[in-house]
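Listing S7. Sequence submitted for prediction.
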Amino acid sequence: MANAKSSRPTMVDVANLSGVSYQTVSRVINNHPYVSRETRQRVQDAIDELGYRPSKAATKLASKSSKIIATVLYGSWLSGLAEIALNVELAAKTSGFDVILINITEPHRQLVEALENVQAWAVDGLILIVPVQSLPVQEIQKICQYTPFVFVDAHQAPDTPSVVIDEAYGTRQLVEHLIEQGHTQMGEISGPLDWFNAQVRHQTCIQTFADHQLAPPVPCEANWTVSGGYRAAKKLLADHASLTAIIAANDSMALGAMRALHEAGLSVPQDVSVVGFDDMPEAAYFTPPLTTVRRNLIQLGMTGFEHLMKRMDDLEAPMQQQAILPRIVFRDSTQPV
């Protein structure tokens, strides 16, 4: 996977370098009057330094452009995915595009119906936030015909137009943190394994243990929810009472696991260390605050839209996957054995 920073500079890069918001960069590029001279110059300096070139799709006014994109979202009941869709919409509106949001709850038949509807609406492009096993990419291409599309938060093949968080990198950092603290007997609460993120986190967890010549963690599959994490942790404790750490594939399940540990008379982290993934806003306020992996969902949504604009500029451009590195956030839910 290519790192997002290794490709053509984006408005996110300009915003980061100039120390302003994504929206301010857009105002400067579109000559909006309500930007101070100092800010305008700072943004222009960043554009010059990075060699940023505004997307044709963001600025063209040709009548053949509808200035509308569609977003197909599976998993709107999960706050993280809903937030990604919102960030795509914010990025699109900043560039003058309207967004049609299509929620689906079944990733095969309903996805086909959604794609066929999109063709009838003649949108300029399509964002697919479908992080589960669904239609083959070739079938999606056949339905979409000449409508450019980009997957966001869906780990397809590296030659697929997509933007993802590097889940493997984040998982490895988390597991190696626990191994460095001396933990060798661990339980793993995975997400549902028909989800791409759950697969990557689970496989990376096993591989990291193997790389350190350790037996794999005891696995238990759950469903991303607090209650699912609670039930999985109770099962792990019943079958393997000697565990010193639990790796939960998201923060909600980590919270459920912490509740199960408390009911079993075990303290976190004195008896069992717990880690999560996502860094949801509440994670810093768990008791104790949770060590986790932070995924920048603002950058993910905005980079996804910019990747789509590149596809809208040039349908013949090579398809590629962009990966954004997450980072581990150390808090008080872990300690050495």
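Caption to Listing S7: primary sequence and predicted structure tokens for the chain studied. Residues 2-50 form a domain with the 434 Repressor (Amino-terminal Domain) fold (CATH 1.10.260.40). Confidence is low (pLDDT under 50) at residues 1-6.
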